[in-house]
Amino acid sequence: MTVADYALEELNKEKTFGGVGKTKDRDVPRIDMSDFENRKKEIANQLWAAATEIGFFQLVGHGIPQSQIDDAFEMTARFFDLAEEVKAQYPLGKGTNAGWEYKAQVRPSTGTADQKESYQITLPRMENLWPAGEELSGFKAEMLAFERANWALGMKVLSCFALKLGFAPDFFTNAHDPLSPEYQSTLRLIHYLPMVDAKPEDFEGWRAGAHTDFDCLTLLHQKTGQGGLQLCPGKESSELEWTDVEPLDGVITCNIGDMLMRWSDDQLQSTLHRVRMPKAEEYQGSRYSMPFFCQANKDAMIEGPNGKYGPITAHDYLQQRIAANFAK
Ligand SMILES: O=C(O)CCC(=O)C(=O)O
Ligand SMILES: [Fe+2]
């Protein structure tokens, strides 16, 4: 399949965004989630402002203990340290968002493979994909708990968008029901490859090429000192201006995905982002990140309050996007 064949309009836009572009400082709104039940209205207003303007925001006071995030990062590093033959026993199945891949994700924006390996956890599809206990003791239990903690936080944020969109409070929670076999939210563990004996041309590619996410909402855990994420609001402007987002402990960087943009009749913005290579003077080692993608269950019907687009199931919507992003 060539890029010209991509079925959805987002993809045809995306393939034009592979260039280096300029940089520009912007503030990413920081939103305090503490005392959520009492402050929900105020938090919802802040989330709405951020999501309709820049499409990115950072959560603090979010309730996921830093020790749990640190432990998940440590487990992630141990997973990627496993021998290649071991990881290869848990391969990513095409269109499943479950299992391990090595440099298999090709972005429409660049046409080249991301310089990374990843392991995806999508709960109903994990049969035979968990490393055995003797290979990585405690991995499954820790990742299941971490997956659920992210889900719960994601549902809090989405309940605020439900409020603003005029949906029932649990509208998105029901659409992301983890007890359903149709559940397809994904915890992804990523290892961006270290630069070893880097030559000038090694600094030119992308750790992750420019893209928008195709889910509803992404919660991204990053490690202090392992930067590289850049965002670029406003897909329509001709000159692209990219903003560095610094990773910080205690902060979860979030963005709106295409699915929620469509579900909100394009009010909430799914913003272009990428992970650049380190510069010559920056840290060159491995970079780890852990995004959690809130993707509505396969059978959820995506239909905005004003009916701007026709209804489509989340399954049909996602399959088109996944097929376009994984070459193998
Ligand atoms: O690793 C990061 O900082 C960003 C990852 C990302 O954008 C993605 O996996 O969709
Ligand atoms: Fe992304």
From TrEMBL:
<comment type="similarity">
    <text>Belongs to the iron/ascorbate-dependent oxidoreductase family.</text>
</comment>
<feature type="domain" description="Fe2OG dioxygenase">
    <location>
        <begin position="182"/>
        <end position="296"/>
    </location>
</feature>
<keyword id="KW-0560">Oxidoreductase</keyword>
<keyword id="KW-0266">Ethylene biosynthesis</keyword>
<keyword id="KW-0408">Iron</keyword>
<dbReference type="InterPro" id="IPR027443">
    <property type="entry name" value="IPNS-like_sf"/>
</dbReference>
<dbReference type="InterPro" id="IPR005123">
    <property type="entry name" value="Oxoglu/Fe-dep_dioxygenase_dom"/>
</dbReference>
<comment type="pathway">
    <text>Alkene biosynthesis; ethylene biosynthesis via 2-oxoglutarate.</text>
</comment>
<dbReference type="GO" id="GO:0046872">
    <property type="term" value="F:metal ion binding"/>
</dbReference>
<keyword id="KW-0479">Metal-binding</keyword>
<dbReference type="Pfam" id="PF14226">
    <property type="entry name" value="DIOX_N"/>
</dbReference>
<dbReference type="InterPro" id="IPR026992">
    <property type="entry name" value="DIOX_N"/>
</dbReference>
<dbReference type="GO" id="GO:0102276">
    <property type="term" value="F:2-oxoglutarate oxygenase/decarboxylase (ethylene-forming) activity"/>
</dbReference>
<dbReference type="InterPro" id="IPR044861">
    <property type="entry name" value="IPNS-like_FE2OG_OXY"/>
</dbReference>
<dbReference type="Pfam" id="PF03171">
    <property type="entry name" value="2OG-FeII_Oxy"/>
</dbReference>
<keyword id="KW-0614">Plasmid</keyword>
<dbReference type="InterPro" id="IPR050231">
    <property type="entry name" value="Iron_ascorbate_oxido_reductase"/>
</dbReference>
<protein>
    <recommendedName>
        <fullName>2-oxoglutarate-dependent ethylene/succinate-forming enzyme</fullName>
        <ecNumber>1.13.12.19</ecNumber>
        <ecNumber>1.14.20.7</ecNumber>
    </recommendedName>
</protein>
<dbReference type="GO" id="GO:0009693">
    <property type="term" value="P:ethylene biosynthetic process"/>
</dbReference>
